[in-house]
């Protein structure tokens, strides 16, 4: 009975972690707005006591978010023991891992004039590299990974709300994301498809300045027999794979569609895939990472 009780009282336990400067503060503020009871910088060694405390609350608090990161110093090393405890006691939890590129993190630290917790007297980049190394194993256990390199605070909050807000209990949340290879592959992508083999509107003068949202660009890309054949095969593959991802317990899948600049082909294809995947068991959103900065660039 005790273990059954543990399964029902805390319906959502989210552990927020990741790289310093990647946006954990914004994420936890968003969860607080969503009704989560939030604790920042909790030493992992206290997780068992903390969990017991909430069980005694008799269901009055059912959504909890805990921020645990490298600021915990030596206490942070006990995180895996705490996670094993939660597994043994059948507590359901999710790990949200936030990260960003080295360049982005260095810029953020300089803008805020903060010191990196692992490099108080050294170069910021050295601290970032060391932290990324220490968190590598934890990243591998994460349920959800968000790369905030190209996100505003508002965009991050929107994505966190999308992932953890009170919505229908979907088996799988899918993000279809267009991007430009010239700006790098999205770090949080689960599946990456390169569509640079498709006809390129960039080389058609009257289409170059538009995006894949435009009807003329969309028709140029979609009217190709190669595009039609590709979409039939790729969408069929996705529809085969998605139920198996859901069955294995994956809650969020990022499908990244890339062309050269992220303006034409990847945008049109991502929009089409998003339309095709919408169904009762999946919540699908389509995002275009590079569409604004790609305007005018070849894609």
TrEMBL record:
GTP binds at residues 69-72. InterPro entries: P-loop_NTPase, RapZ-like, RapZ-like_N, RapZ_C. Keywords: ATP-binding, GTP-binding, Kinase, Nucleotide-binding, Transferase. Residues 12-165 form the RapZ-like N-terminal domain. The keyword Cell wall biogenesis/degradation does not apply. ATP binds at residues 18-25. Signal peptide: none annotated. Residues 173-291 form the RapZ C-terminal domain. GO terms for molecular function: ATP binding; GTP binding; kinase activity. NCBIfam families: PRK05416.1 (NF003828). HAMAP family: RapZ_like. This is Predicted P-loop-containing kinase. It comes from Calderihabitans maritimus.
């Amino acid at each position: 009975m005790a273990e059954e009780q543990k399964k029902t009282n805390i319906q959502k336990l989210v552990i927020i972690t990741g790289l310093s400067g990647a946006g954990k503060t914004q994420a936890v503020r968003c969860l607080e707005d969503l009704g989560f009871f939030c604790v920042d910088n909790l030493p992992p060694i206290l997780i068992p006591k903390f969990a017991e405390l909430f069980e005694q609350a008799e269901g009055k608090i059912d959504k909890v978010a805990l921020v645990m990161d490298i600021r915990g110093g030596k206490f942070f090393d006990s995180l895996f023991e705490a996670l094993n405890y939660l597994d043994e006691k059948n507590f359901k939890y999710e790990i949200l891992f936030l990260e960003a590129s080295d360049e982005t993190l260095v810029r953020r630290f300089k803008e805020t004039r903060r010191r990196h917790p692992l490099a108080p007297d050294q170069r910021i980049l050295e601290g970032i590299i060391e932290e990324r190394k220490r968190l590598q194993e934890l990243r591998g256990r994460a349920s959800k990974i968000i790369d905030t390199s190209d996100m505003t605070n508002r965009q991050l909050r929107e994505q966190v709300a999308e992932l953890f807000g009170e919505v229908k209990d979907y088996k799988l949340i899918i993000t279809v994301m267009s991007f430009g290879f010239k700006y790098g592959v999205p770090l949080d992508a689960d599946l990456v498809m390169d569509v640079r083999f498709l006809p390129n509107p960039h080389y058609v003068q009257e289409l170059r300045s538009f995006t894949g949202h435009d009807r003329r660009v969309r028709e140029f890309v979609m009217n190709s027999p190669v595009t039609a054949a590709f979409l039939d095969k790729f969408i069929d593959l996705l529809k085969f794979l998605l139920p198996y991802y859901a069955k294995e317990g994956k809650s969020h899948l990022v499908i990244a569609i890339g062309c050269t600049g992220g303006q034409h082909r990847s945008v049109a294809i991502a929009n089409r895939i998003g339309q095709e995947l919408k169904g009762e068991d999946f919540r699908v959103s389509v995002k275009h990472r590079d569409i604004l900065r790609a305007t005018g660039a070849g894609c």
